[in-house]
Design brief:
Strand content: under 5%
Helix content: over 70%
Protein name: ABC transporter permease
Pfam family, one: BPD_transp_1
Membrane topology: Multi-pass membrane protein
CATH topology of one domain: MetI-like fold
Subcellular location: Cell membrane
Largest sheet: none
Family: Belongs to the binding-protein-dependent transport system permease family.
Length: 338
């Protein structure tokens, strides 16, 4: 099994390389078409034309685009995404500071979406043929029709402003010090034994993660219900009934193992979309992740940051896809023989 998984990983990594190259090329070329002069933006407003031209030469902007791209790609391969035009600091450092926060938000949101989706799918299937199924089905469609930013605003008004149960800005309340070991706040607070900081960080994550999780749970719910309906047509389900197994044992012990496989594939795709969907939620909740960094960079036309964040999103989505394919291979023995 491990050899098969290793071959799959190697194959997927090889396929990912040209995808990354294509994405990086598109990012670089499209941003260079914009009517923006990075050299002029990196200098004071009173800079002379001569100073701007000298800066353009220094930044390599006078070179042909293919040569500029080759230089930038070589720097990226060595972990250097350049320097932010507005912030005057290393873009690699900025990505390292904001990426862990976005990953924590996306992982917690996906856990919520998976829990709600699987529980809802099982409930929909269990209630099949009843009036309750129709009510729950309409409810899932209503959840599906509301985007994550509306959920974010609704949760702020309800639990942040009205009931004042949970904080809804930033990652920590005033008076808490953020530990810095791995860059992941939840992990670092546990490593250092700062459990009060950990709980405060979790409280700040609940609303944005729930806003994302609720909006991405209905597709999981509906696909799982459809998969269970298909699986229940198979012969082994009827044979399990003839052996006297209870419906609950048949559902959890037999049908769910096969029905979860297409649901797992959807969850991998959903996680990729969810990771990109953190952008609006981070803005709404003033959450210091890559989404906020990207919006600020777009507002200031900070090309090095835009390029780095776009490429980072692509890498994360590809990694998620590879991990999901590996998990699918582990859970589905039939694929190991191919």
């Amino acid at each position: 099994m491990f050899a098969t998984i290793a071959k799959l990983l190697a194959r997927r990594i090889l396929v990912s390389i040209p995808i990354l190259l294509l994405v990086s090329m598109l990012l670089f070329m499209i941003l260079r078409v914009l009517p923006v002069d990075p050299a002029a933006m990196s200098l004071p407003p009173n800079a002379t034309i001569e100073e701007i031209e000298a800066k353009r030469v220094e930044m390599g902007l006078t070179l042909p685009l293919p040569q500029q791209y080759a230089i930038w790609l070589s720097q990226v391969a060595h972990g250097d995404f350049g320097t932010s035009i507005q912030l005057r600091t290393s873009v690699t450092r900025l990505i390292g500071q904001t990426l862990p926060a976005t990953i924590e938000l996306a992982v917690l949101a996906m856990a919520i979406a998976s829990a709600l989706g699987i529980a809802g799918g099982l409930l929909l299937f269990y209630l099949r043929g009843t009036r309750s199924e129709t009510v729950l089905d309409v409810g899932s469609i209503a959840l599906l029709s509301l985007p994550e930013f509306l959920w974010g605003l609704f949760l702020i008004l309800l639990f942040g402003v009205w009931f004042e149960f949970l904080p809804f800005t930033g990652v920590l309340s005033a008076g808490y010090q953020k530990p810095d070991i791995t860059g992941f706040l939840l992990v670092d607070s546990l490593i250092t034994g700062q459990f009060a900081t950990f709980w405060n960080a979790v409280q700040h994550l609940i609303l944005p993660a729930f806003a994302l999780g609720v909006s991405f749970s209905p597709p999981i719910m509906r696909v799982l219900r459809s998969s269970l309906l298909d699986v229940y047509q198979d012969d082994y389900i009827h044979q399990a009934r003839l052996r006297g197994l209870s419906e609950r044992r048949i559902l959890i012990g037999h049908a769910l193992k096969n029905a979860i496989l297409p649901t797992l594939s959807l969850m991998g795709v959903q996680f990729g979309f969810l990771f990109g969907g953190t952008l609006l939620i981070e803005i709404i909740y003033s959450y210091p992740g890559m989404g906020n960094l990207m919006v600020d960079a777009i507002r200031n036309t900070d090309l090095p940051i835009i390029q780095a964040v776009g490429l980072t999103y692509c890498v994360v989505v590809l990694v998620i896809s590879i991990l999901v394919d590996s998990l699918y291979l582990i859970l589905n023995p039939k694929l190991r023989t191919r």
